[in-house]
Structure prediction request, 542 residues.
Amino acid sequence: MNILYIMFDQLRFDYLSCAGHPTLHTPNIDRIAKRGVRFTNCYTQSPVCGAARMSAYTGRYVSSHGAQWNGMPLRVGEPTLGDHLRGAGVGCWLIGKTHMNADTLGMKRLGLTPDSVIGARQAEAGFDVWCRDDGLWAQGPDGFYDRKRSPYNEYLKSLGYAGQNPWADFANAGADGEDMASGWFMQNADKPANIAEEHSETPWLTGQAIDFISQATDPWVAHVSYIKPHWPYIVPAPYHDMFGPDDVPPAVKSDAERDDPNPIFKAFMNGRIGQTFSREDVRDKVIPAYMGLIKQCDDQMGRLFDHLEHTGQMDSTMIILTSDHGDYLGDHWMGEKDLFHASSVKVPLIISDPRATANSTRGTTCDDLVESIDVTATILDAAGVPVPEHIIEGRSLMPALNGTPHTARTFAISEYDYSKHPVCNTLGTAPRDARLFMVATHDWKLIHAEGGFPPMLFDLKNDPDELHDLGRDADYSAQRATLYAHLHAWGLRMSQRITVSDDQIIASRTGRNGTGVILGVYDETDVDPAEVSSYVGKIPEG
Prediction:
């Protein structure tokens, strides 16, 4: 069985028709939900691209692998999904985005060169690369945001698009007469991107995925990782005007949220992004474009799934669809991601297993608490690779897919290091204290902030929209204590002893001691004679 591991960037959990969106129809993603299980309570490990993805690729929490923000390197030697699979003879390939930043100093220290096989895998989050393009080719006075080569830009140049950065000039910009209408300016979100639809990023990457699948002969796991519907919020025709302000759901927000808010929440709300997305005219421009980007993604899923059907591979391919994090889109007076309200921290997760063992759960939903790192464990389990529990901190979801009894999580964890965010300056927080932790159960959610700030608390059962912060309410001290106990138990987990498993430890302290280290023994009759045979008998003659 092959595994198609599809990740979208910044796709909200509730912007799919199978998740109940009232006006955005995603029949091709729904098609996979009908063939598999849709998990309704999946939490990302961090509401920021880089940290979330490094957790997905390692199967480990953010504080375990340490790559806590965009651009922070994943330390050399950190075991990844590709490392675990490759040891079992299964290829693990990248097609698209990772946001991986290589630990160049660590590689240099160990003598690993990027042009070697092992060096390249270290630099690419453990993947073998079919095509990597992180899809963020911003350019400012200090140069490019991403200084790597862009295969997508090279593709556009080969088609005759002008300039050095057609990603910015055409794929993510419209036209205002002869002037560029950049997608970076949200006032242009309702304009069509100045590019043929079939040449835009999502169709291009889908073509790369089809090319990979068409040539593959050995078992594979393919991580097809799309940049969209991540900003810039602009999409080519005909998707640019498929939706309008009437299709935009009302923002989930309340004036009460701005009355004496938690200091960290206040700092994010009052930042430029929060202030901009608090405007209804901005939402009316941006969200229809965001929906158009999702609709284009869904159409391309149809193209990809049709290829699997036409080539006879649909029934031998597990399909996983998810996202790295969500998008506030004006909910809670915020934009982007960063904090732990559902629109930011919950992600879609749909898994379709073609094997007969999953027949009983097809077309169902699972409300268990799930974390993104569980996908890593699930892929290994599905591929027949033992999950190394001393390394992988996620749990396999195969029991939920097969309808077999299992113990679900009691709580879910997400983390956020905001030390490189402007909010850190606003609050005057030291970098080592600029850390947030979320612990959520089915009924409650607690957000803990280092640096002496008060917590936030939400009653998810009676306040599912998370509009009333009970973090400083004396009447809810018992609920806070319970959630802090969960966070404390998680904090005491064994997370760094990854070179030796529990089974190896148990084996090392049972059975015969054949190493000759004999402690607490009065004479040789107290132990197995074989263990002390080197220490009894005549003194050797010289």
